[in-house]
Amino acid sequence: MQSLPQSTILGKLTVIETFEQYDIPGLFSCKNSSGQHYLALSAHEDIYASTWFYLPVSNQRLDKIRFGKTDIYEAYLTAEDGFVFEVIISPGGDATTVKSLPCSDIQEDWLPHRGKRLSVPENMSAQHMAKITRRDILEFVFDFPDSFESKVPSRILGDILITTQELFDSIGSRNYSSTPPMRGPISKDILVQTKMSINQVFQGTFDIQLIADQKADENNSSLIGEAIGEFTSLTQAISDGQLLKEKLVSLRGRILTKYAAFLKAIKHSGSDFKCNWGSPKEGSGGTASVNNQEARNVLSIIRRLTKKALEDKKAALSRANLNVAGNQPEVTKEKALSDRESDTDL
């Protein structure tokens, strides 16, 4: 049976994601060509017609429904605009009627039971979720020491998450402007674009899924996507010593400092680390990993590079001072005495 209404005021519709399916989709999200999103629910069906409720939703409301923060029953009865579209499709799909229906007129027994929420399937890949939500997804997979048993100190996990976010903020600051500040606070405009939030913690593990707060643009690009991409590329380079050194040398001071802080957090956790990056942008996404010993090795490289850079800076400053001193005219005792006598004469 045809589930998408054709040639109606709803516009030209495209299915985004199907949540429940029997012989036909029973609950799915879709959008029209102008970008309006709907949550479509199969409400009633008999031999004469099938009735659907199309709920107009904002991106933010759809996300709350999608990730189980708003139950489906309440979503329809508290529609943002106060109404839904009732769509009645004939058995052959050749006749469709669409009318707006106030939320107060919805037959509640045609809705899912109160409290029914959607959940994210645990087997859904980060890449798939990124495509659906148009947000960058980052999954952290840990392998903590057995000594932690079933608990991980909050300070250890917190340090990893904080240093990761601060690293993304720093990369975003550099990419946002051709002349980013080397120190001082990062602007709020950048922090909004690089902010990530915990989306879920996988059952039976300490693995965490992060999701970008902001959707990608019409080209599926974003500042946080660029930051995650650089973080992933940098971590992938750990297995290639020469490439890693080249990448580390190219980093600005703030970014290098924040990457070192992230590696220190991994080192102190005693865990190996793996990340799965899902990107809404075609050709982006991927995985990267670093074991605890590799984190220690990279920290040693960063310390050596930082020390060498400091020594080079001191040497350059010393040479500059010598050059300045060498360009000064030499003042002899005789000339100094002559100058004093001239001053006395005046």
Explain how this protein is built.
The chain has 346 residues and is of the alpha+beta class. It has two domains: 13-110, no CATH class; 126-319, no CATH class. It is 41% helix and 23% strand. The protein has ten helices and eleven strands. It has helices spanning 59-66, 72-77, 126-133, 154-176, 188-194, 223-236, 241-250, 253-269, 292-326, 333-345; strands at residues 13-21, 25-32, 37-45, 50-57, 83-89, 96-102, 137-143, 196-201, 208-212, 272-278, 286-290. The strands form two sheets. The chain has a six-stranded antiparallel β-sheet with strand order 1-2-3-4-5-6. It has a five-stranded antiparallel β-sheet with strand order 8-9-7-10-11. A hairpin with a 6-residue loop joins strand 8 (196-201) and strand 9 (208-212). Helix 8 packs antiparallel against helix 9. The longest helix is centred in the last third of the chain and has 35 residues, at 292-326. The chain is elongated and about 95 Å long. Residues 340-346 have low confidence and may be disordered.
